[in-house]
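User: Could you walk me through two proteins back to back? I'd like the raw sequence and the structure tokens for each, with a short line separating them so I can tell where one ends and the next begins.

Assistant: Of course. Protein one, sequence then structure:
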Amino acid sequence: MSINHNLPVLLDINSTLFPPTSMALIEPNGLLAFGGDLSMERLISAYQHGVFPWYSDGEPIMWWSPTPRSVIFVNQYKAAKSLKKLSRKNLFELKHNMAFNEVIRSCANINRKEQNGTWITEEMILAYEQLHQLGVAHSFECWQENHLVGGLYGIIIDKVFFGESMFSNVSNSSKLAFMYSVEYCQQQGIELIDCQVESDHMNSLGAINISRNEFEKLLKELINK
């Protein structure tokens, strides 16, 4: 592992260790390191330490540890009344892990106003599909007339759900899938949802900002390494 305190760290391909997150650059968004690979061991190690990959085709793998960190405390989540009302109409069917591959590829292909292209590369898709086969990556889906119309995916380790991405082809479908994911977390004793970087959309769902130190303290309490 090559360390330069003014630059992101170059990871050792033969080690899954990450540098201290205090070394992450403040701008942009806590870039910590680059290189390495997307092996299952490295990905799980990354999430356990509050680090996640985010890069585009043609770029090296880049690893991030932003501060502040956007999170939702499961026991504080309150779904909007309009969303609960919509759910009671039974216009949609909510499912868990029925179409993980379709969800992640839909997240990769959806157009986003604030972004040019996608960070969900084919390499990342294959890696997260392997995590799904291991029972670590999960999808929460919204179906309408047997068609997948919205959903999200992420990583679950012990009592933390690390949300990765969501998509919506029908109004409110991703919000319904997210509400369902929170209900699942409540049932499984999962206490924290990581939303990574602040966004208006996640703020509308109840996300708040906490410091990196507070986030990592919570990880130590909630993840049994």
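----
Protein two, same layout:
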Amino acid sequence: MALDPAVTAEIIEEDLLRAHVYRLLAKLLRASPDKDTLHSISQLNGDDSELGQALATLAKVAGKVTAEQTAEEYQNLFIGVGRGELLPYGSYYLTGFLNEKPLAKLRKDMAAIGIERRDAVCEPEDHIAALCEMMAGLITGEYGEPLALAEQKRFYGTHVEPWAAHFFTDLEGARSSKLYGAIGSIGKAFMDIETSAFRMLEQ
């Protein structure tokens, strides 16, 4: 969905950067990157922060691997024979089973906000890529008006914070992770930033 330039202009730069990180994570966790995507992320720059260093590491690794290698890595991590090394779903991380109460609660909150599942998507809505896409959309107003930080915090605190950092830590250290180890580092650092920032709203 194309963003309304008038709406985008009203979103502060910090929030646009947050949305960009969420979209990057969503894109890389939805499917393995193709050649063009690898080239694009190999051009990323990072600063001295934990997140910046993780982005720099991702760029370095992306410049050394092929799309075929990352496709195999993605297969081993998330698909496998029967199942992959990791199951990137909120219900699984929170209950040990797929399609449980956390997914039902997410669907209820999605309906209240006006988020509809895309017909082409076969994964349950509590897939980490889907949740990153949703967070980006809440920030930029893809489901109507951009949500206030307090509403973003409620959604994040209910559906992302309880398990995403754990998932990204697992991804960072997974046996099959190479490029995705760096993606795990980015996700873990970014979740720490988001969690800390949202907690500041309580003060």
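The first helix runs from residue 5 to 10.

Let me know if you want the two compared in more detail.
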